[in-house]
Write a structure and sequence with these properties.
The protein is an alpha/beta fold and 371 residues long. The chain is 32% helix and 17% strand. Helix 5 crosses helix 10. The chain is globular. It starts with 11 loop residues before the first strand and ends in a 10-residue tail after the last strand. The structure holds adenosine-5'-diphosphate and magnesium ion (MG). Magnesium ion binds next to strand 11. Keywords: ATP-binding, Ligase, Nucleotide-binding. One of its GO terms (biological process) is microtubule cytoskeleton organization. InterPro entries: TTL/TTLL_fam. It catalyses: L-glutamyl-[protein] + L-glutamate + ATP = gamma-L-glutamyl-L-glutamyl-[protein] + ADP + phosphate + H(+).
Length: 371
């Protein structure tokens, strides 16, 4: 391993129990910086990455700006693999202990809407309903169709129907027995991928302005709520609680899959996007957990937030600066991105697809910011 230079002391930290394992501290400003110490550190330590089955320009930019070289997707000579899909068991089994990949096996236990609901429902049964009352009332169709119909007879909605394994608002619609406007998807679904197509969508070109238009930073939302006299410390504690409980509900299955397929305990990490809706009582509700949350940067604010988040994630994951056996610095790290806070208002006509959908109770109060 090359000697650590005096100029690198600030960006290579000693980690691990004995504080002898050098890991790289990633800096978001590296993507614009001309500082040779940052750019050359990956080169000097021969660090490499590969990107497989995904287009991740920001991940590539952060790694390349720290001197990591990109290798062909067939190469085994990498420290980090960033992939758009899950790895086959034989690929996982072949990982060396310094190598890392951005998915756990079986993380669909968290990211498929039906699996998430079933896992949380199990926790409600074993640990008390009120302790895991973190998701809106849900039914999985077609198996719970009768229960849903009984409930719908009493509670006329609106209800939101979602495919169990889709994303970006695709395939979602609302049902209600009350006369409300359920056809207006811009009003009901706060997905950026949908709302950016609305003629009313207001974007912002200044990365320093975090509270203008339809996309705000989370800090700006919290500042706004605080000004309105809301207890944002309590709110964020509850959001953290919700995230931890969601992860716990899928932990056993994912840990079992890791035991079966992953040779070293630090091989896998994962970035999840949590969709959290805050109701008018300031109670957070988990809507879903996103696999591979969007890292695209349409607005300058996206770049500012996502570059910092990815740099933090790679620092936390702990990129070992040498390729030898037995040097893994941490336990299994999971890095979590609270992806957004979604407003919702409103709702309407009964039309049901009964295959592989989940139905959730909607009807939370509208929030005053865009999603
Ligand atoms: N229970 C709910 N109540 C109110 N709005 C909801 C509810 N579930 C989803 N939504 C709205 O629909 C959007 C899409 O739902 P989501 O579960 O995140 O699916 P997708 O994978 O398509 O993003 C959310 O961002 C939110 O705006
Ligand atoms: Mg979503």
């Amino acid at each position: 391993m090359p000697q650590i230079l005096a100029t690198e002391i600030k960006i290579i930290l000693n980690s691990g129990l004995s504080k002898t394992i050098p890991v790289l501290l990633f800096l978001p400003e590296a993507i614009v910086s001309k500082d040779r110490n940052i750019c050359s550190v990956g080169e000097r330590f021969n660090m490499a990455f590969k990107i497989v089955r995904t287009e991740s320009r920001l991940v590539r930019r952060i790694l390349a700006s720290h001197g990591f070289s990109e290798v062909h997707s067939n190469s085994n000579d990498f420290n980090l693999m960033w992939t758009g899909s899950h790895l086959k068991p034989y690929v996982l089994r072949s990982l060396q202990d310094y190598q890392k990949v951005n998915h756990f096996p079986r993380s669909y236990e968290l990211t498929r809407k039906d699996r998430l609901y079933k896992n949380i429902q199990r926790m409600q049964q074993t640990h008390g309903f009120k302790n895991f009352h973190i998701i809106p009332q849900t039914f999985v169709l077609p198996s719970e169709n009768q229960e849903f119909r009984n409930c719908f007879a009493k509670d006329k909605g609106p209800w939101i129907i979602k495919p169990v394994a889709s994303s970006r608002g695709r395939g979602i619609y609302l049902v209600s027995n009350t006369p409300t406007n359920i056809k207006n998807t811009f009003m009901h679904l706060t997905n950026y991928s949908l709302n950016k197509k609305s003629s009313d969508y207001v974007s912002c070109d200044d990365p320093e302005v975090e509270d203008y238009g339809n996309k705000w930073s989370m800090s700006a939302v919290l500042r706004y709520l605080k000004q309105e006299g809301k207890d944002t410390t309590l709110l964020m504690k509850q959001v953290e609680d919700l995230v931890i409980k969601a992860v716990l509900s899928a932990e056993l299955q994912i840990a079992a899959a890791c035991k079966m397929f992953v040779p070293h305990k630090t091989n896998c990490f994962e970035l999840y996007g949590f969709d959290v809706l805050i109701d008018s009582n300031l109670k957070p509700w988990l809507l879903e957990v996103n696999l591979s949350p969007s890292l695209s940067c349409d607005a300058p604010l996206d770049l500012k937030i996502k570059a910092s988040m990815i740099a933090d994630m790679f620092s936390l994951v702990g990129e070992c600066m040498f390729k030898q056996k037995g040097n893994s610095p941490f336990g299994i790290p999971v890095f979590i991105l609270p992806s957004r806070m979604s407003p919702f208002e409103g709702s309407v006509t009964l039309k049901l697809f009964l295959q592989d959908h989940s139905v959730c109770k909607t009807g939370f109060a509208a929030a005053p910011w865009g999603g």
